[in-house]
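Revision sheet: structure tokens.
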Amino acid sequence: MIVRYFHQADISMIDHKLNKLYESINRLIKSLKSQPQPQPQPQPQPGYTKL
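Predicted:
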């Protein structure tokens, strides 16, 4: 088991960061779903190459 090499403090810190990340992702998904219409992507101008 790899887990035994981590100290308990490291595990709880990693767990805390993962929880924060999960919360922010959930917030992002909710805000995306709550938008009535997604913004249309701007069409590139004819003859214009996007680098």
